[in-house]
Fold:
Amino acid sequence: MKKMLLLVSSLFILTPQVFAQVSVLPGEAASEFAIGVERGIYFMKPVDPFQISQCQIVDARFFAPLSLTQAQKTMAPCLAAISQKYGIPVNVKVGTPHSGPYKMDAQVEILMLNVSRALPITHPLVRDLDYGLSRRKGKILGFPARVLVPGHFEPKA
Structure:
């Protein structure tokens, strides 16, 4: 009985020392992992692409409403700057999407921000354009606007 008591008491004494040496990640590795996760989240965080000097016109208010053609011409320098920033051409067209999630049965013309090549929706350009539009309740210069990416659905302009 004394031997059993001695064994149990020694286990209680040694247990904290044994478990102190075992951890899932060592201290430095755990902090490096946390930093890596924070950086990954930071780079996935959307940014409003219209917050550059060439795009200040997007949030402008006018006494007389613009026509769709005027809005299209007004947006061209802004989208050229965004294209340069992301390295992927983006242009604006006026039309009605006839397929995909933005399909419209009525002939409502909108501003379509066309990305020049097929990209996943998680690509920073697509993600940021969608975020910028959502901050403006889906409208630019008073007109409904959508981001269109080839392969997601095809609009008819």
